[in-house]
Amino acid sequence: MSETRRTRERLDTPRDERRHLVRRPSYNKDAFGVFAEQFARFMGTATFLLYMTLFVIVWVTLNVVGLFGLHWDPYPFILLNLFFSTQASYAAPLILLAQNRQEARDRVIAEQDRQADARAHADMEFLAREVASLRMAVGEVATRDFLRSELRTLLSDLDDRADERAQSHEDGDDEDQRGSA
After folding, report:
1. What angle, 0 to 180 degrees and rounded to 10, lies between the N-to-C axes of helices 78-140 and 46-64?
2. pTM for this structure?
3. Label partner for 75 (CA 20 to 30 A): which of 67, 88, 110, 141?
């Protein structure tokens, strides 16, 4: 059996013919996402709340008082409720879309932060190892004070030996003088 025939017989693989029969509308997902974010951002402002409040006041005033003989939505304000329901049914998915886009951005930023933290941690460990090796190397290097103390010790040892030789020389000279006398 050929590979394409096996694929067609599988139930979890859609047929190519079906894909071509159904045309789905295409749109720019990024442009729509940007629109959703701007809309969600605007809905969260005091300006939006002010506009909505003014709209409701004008709507109720025109329908209760009946200025200019307009009474298109009497007291229970069913048309106003329908308007708000429609607005909410569109606003909720747009807000969710904006939140999903923000979450995706936050995820990317968090991943970049994790990578930067990992690099910084590796750099700190490297520097700590370098500082430790420098301390060990400096510990093996003779310092100025150590050299001075060693030189003083050597100088005092040389002075002591010179004194001993001088004294042994004097003792030898004394014996030579005694022996010749």
Report:
1. 170
2. 0.51
3. 88
Residues 6+ apart with CB under 8 A from 36: 94, 95, 97, 98, 101
Classify residue 11 by its DSSP letter.
T
Contact residues for 60 (Cβ-Cβ < 8 A; gap 6+): 77, 80
Eight-class DSSP state of 45: S
Q: Is 2 left (phi over 0), alpha (psi -120 to 50) or beta?
A: beta
Q: Which residue's structure tokens are 């060693």?
A: 150
In the chain, the N- to C-terminal Cα span, in Å, equals 133
pLDDT tens digits, residue range 3-14? 555 555 677 776
Alpha helices in the chain (DSSP H): 3-9, 16-21, 29-43, 46-64, 78-140, 144-180
Token pair for residue 84? 């708000």
Q: What are the tokens at 24?
A: 């789905």
